[in-house]
Amino acid sequence: MKERIVITIARQYGSGGRTIAKMLSEKMGIHYYDKELMKLASEESGINEALFVSADEKIKSTRLFKIAHNIYQGELIPPESDDFVSTQNLFNYQAKIIKQLAMEESCVIVGRCADFILKDYDNVLSVFIHAPHEYCMEQAALKQPTLSPRELEKFIFKTDKHKAEYYKYYTGREWTDARNYDLCLDSSKLGFERCVEEIISYIGVRFR
After folding, report:
1. How far apart are CA 13 and CA 21, in angstroms?
2. Is the pLDDT confidence value at 66 over 70?
3. 16 and 143 in contact (C-beta within 8 Å)?
4. What is the CATH number of the domain that holds 26?
5. Segment 73-106, tens digit of pLDDT
6. End-to-end CA separation in angstroms for the chain
7. Which domain holds residue 54?
8. pLDDT digits (tens, 9 = 90+) for 124-161
9. How many domains does the chain have?
10. Contact 200, 24 (CB under 8 A)
11. Is the Cβ–Cβ distance between 140 and 40 less than 8 Å?
12. Is 136 helix (H, G, I), strand (E, B) or coil?
């Protein structure tokens, strides 16, 4: 692929968004980035990778995170600051890696508010994968077979609620607002393969 094209994928839990992202990367022959971003950010910053991994759990339990905004502006906090290993700066370094990737290679990036971080980049296509609750329950049950239907419903609700809060905290936007994305696909109607095909077709139209 001569032109660098980055596809960011946000997804509801159980919609198959991560699977679609992996299938897309394989189909296009480009790299897939998800949790690997934390490792790259750790290497870039010198901050222990375990802090990046634990940051999400810390954020989930912080009430301030749920009611406040700390919209990403692109800055990095220097090592001499007491806030160098703050959750904000951990996000900043992941954002730095995402920007570097967008300038260096074609790739698929899952989550991490990548659509917002790269909103001013011309070579980026942002996608949101969603599906009805019943479909998400069916798909989630395949990955969480030990959970009862009631437990699974609570798990899905909690997971998506955290994604929405995380997104709003760092972007000031609503996670499920279609206006934030170039393309929104219902995986229950299209299936995973067709979602991949539609994304590639859109790329063909958008980046001739």
Report:
1. 13
2. no
3. no
4. 3.40.50.300
5. 888 888 888 889 888 888 999 999 999 999 999 9
6. 12
7. 6-206
8. 999 999 999 999 999 999 999 999 999 999 999 999 99
9. 1
10. yes
11. no
12. helix
